[in-house]
Amino acid sequence: MDRLKQLAIGIAIVVSTVAHAQNSKLQPGANAITTQTRETIFVHANATTFVIGETLYYKIYTRSRTDYSPSAVSRIAYIALVDNSHKSMFTQKVSLEQGVGQGDFFIPTTLKTGNYKLLAYTRWTQNQPDFAYAIDLSVINPFQPLNKSGIVSNITKDTLLKTSDLLRISLGKKTYGLREKVTVNIQSLQKAVKGNFSLSVRKIDALPSKEAPDAVAFLLGETKKDKNTFALNQIPELRGELLSGTITSKKEQQDLNHKTVALSITGKSFAVKIAETDRQGRFSFVLDPKPNLGQMTIQVMDDARQDFSIQVDQAPQPDWSSLQFEPEFPLNPELQAAIESRAVASQIENAYYSQKKDSIAENRLSEAFFGSIQKEYVLDDYTRFPSMKETITEVLKEMYFTKKDGKYTINLRNYVTNNEGFGYPLLLVDGLVIQDANELFDYNPENIYKVSIVNQPYVYGPKTFSGVINIETKNQDYQTAANGDFIKKIESQRPPNRKFYFGPDYALKADTRIPDYRYQLLWEPSLRLETTNTEIGFYTSDLAGKFEIVLEGFTDKGLPVSIKAFIEVK
After folding, report:
1. What are 335-367's pLDDT values in tens digits?
2. Which residues, in sequence order, are CB contacts of 326 under 8 Å at separation 6+?
3. Which are the contacts of 384, defined by CB distance < 8 A and separation ≥ 6?
4. Distance of CA 130 to the CA centre of its chain
5. Predicted TM-score of the model (pTM)
6. Pairing relation of β-strands 359-360 and 499-500?
7. Is 271 exposed, middle or buried (0-12, 13-18, 19+ CB in 10 A)?
8. Among 457, 375, 394, 470, which residue's Cα sits nearest to residue 424?
9. Degrees, nearest 5: CA angle 87-91-95
10. Distance, C-alpha 257 to centroid of its chain
11. Distance between CA 514 and CA 274 in Å, rounded?
């Protein structure tokens, strides 16, 4: 019985076992997440051995353990590189859409030669004993003496072509010249196979490498794992990235319940979130995918805000102490030529990086949360006044200010009634919540680009405001004068935007004078198959040798696909 038939039987057993559970199907936003709901992760990496200066590319697939379709539980995944002293070298957050996400690591010169693990997980999988997917990697730093460190000697021979009953890789020929176009056809063997896949084309050399589990082997192993319920320690990031924390009171027996906390991500495209605390003073925010850049500020919104302190939770850090690493051995001096070749190739490619840049998906400006109902005043369209008092009085007709006991307040009018019955307006500068209007009266209005006003009662989160005022500065560089324990600026790693990886087009005759020492000829992490034949083209480089073509992924019905083919470049 081949592996695919074994897997089909395993999936059928698992599905029949969980069929009685009403919540076996995951629906975002529904009350379907229970301790019986499990997800699992598979990662396709472009290689398992790297020389410093090279780039590790990866694609993450999260799957439901009920039917192995794309998991709907998590919208954020985490991927970490851990060394054999169980120390995390770096961690990335990855946005997931329909159960898949992608990213890359540049292997820096600070990494030592040795064995590492690439680990992928979500908050939800951390509730499971087997919460992380692991790939054994090796890093070679040629600037270290070869006899003082090493990697495991597990040189991979030519791998037999892995076939599937679903798809096959078809090539026009097996041998190509330097800088010649290669066309890969991915063909369905029956009807059109629809799914999400990743495709890698990389040079094979003599350096030791490890055989990472393919999608078929991974899922075959998953069907044999325990599907019992588990302890709930982490809530899933079901709708997006979670940011949470706690407020505490400086006064004894002060109520922490129903206090308002605001999050601002400032900039031209900004985000404002308002949450309410529970009895323990806990709060949480679900961050939108965009904007993913900008200064983040969290503050308690209260007249007595100076009585409170705010603490932001750190991202959950897994314990890697139980990881088992393979024993090391000194690198064989016979590998010196291969190491030097890889090191030289990566240095040449990095030297021409400015001419071979990857492109990043456009971070389109997101519309302000108050939509298109605001009235906008672009101040250059009006007479400029030297103070905020005059600007409000002479230009911003819906706004007015009062002063009492030396303190200013800003209010809104809507020509029917002053909106004071709904409290003060939500006052923002570049998306930053401003609670003390006094600081604005010392600000130079020459730095203001425009003012957006919603002069009607506005409900946002748990609070009702008399309206919304957002002041946009010319450089989005406003710094609030507010200070104290109630307000905190935070640095939070956000998932990066999707990348589109560089590939030369020698048909254009534009890159003929630029050296091409690519070991990685193609990395396509966002391959959707919809028809019976999908054609993908790429060019070989200035390097001769044998190259491996690897297709990994899953069909929309949860079936795994893992296929390899090879080409020779002369």
Report:
1. 889 999 999 999 999 999 988 888 887 666 778
2. 115, 136, 152, 154
3. 445, 446
4. 22
5. 0.86
6. antiparallel
7. buried
8. 457
9. 155
10. 33
11. 52
